[in-house]
Design a protein that fits this description.
Layout lengths: L1 E5 L7 H9 L6 E6 L6 E8 L3 H11 L3 E2 L2 E2 L1 E4 L38
Antiparallel strand pairs: 1-3, 1-6, 2-3, 4-5
Keywords: RNA-binding
Protein name: RRM domain-containing protein
Length: 114
């Protein structure tokens, strides 16, 4: 089972997260997501556990736990459908032209009277 872990303290290491989950069973992998430019944690990650019942017990007991003063969120990770993934182009309005060529105010559009 792939498990989402959110609201992590930025100082937590993958080894610490692995240790927390290994108390409930076998852990295949741990990945804390980091910013690709700064290398700093984004405050969430994923843990993979092969045994679903052990993974569910970890989710039930760790969700809402306080780690380094932060209440973490732990739940089963569900893959997003392809249509819901964000791309950089979807963040803009359709008519954003950067302000150039917009004839707003005065008679800027009528330049025949120099």
């Amino acid at each position: 089972m792939n498990i989402f872990v959110g609201s992590l303290p930025f100082s937590i290491e993958e080894a610490d997260l692995r240790e927390s989950f290994e108390a409930y069973g076998t852990v295949d992998s741990v990945k804390i997501i980091t910013d690709k430019f700064t290398g700093r944690s984004k405050g969430f990650g994923f843990v993979e556990m092969p045994n679903d019942s052990e993974a569910q017990k970890a989710i039930d007991e760790l969700n809402g736990a306080v780690v380094s003063g932060r209440t973490i969120v732990v739940n089963k990770s569900e893959p997003k459908p392809e249509g819901e993934r964000r791309s950089f182009n979807n963040n803009r309005g359709g008519n954003n032209r950067g302000g150039y060529g917009n004839n707003r105010g005065g008679d800027r559009g009528n330049r025949g009277d120099y």
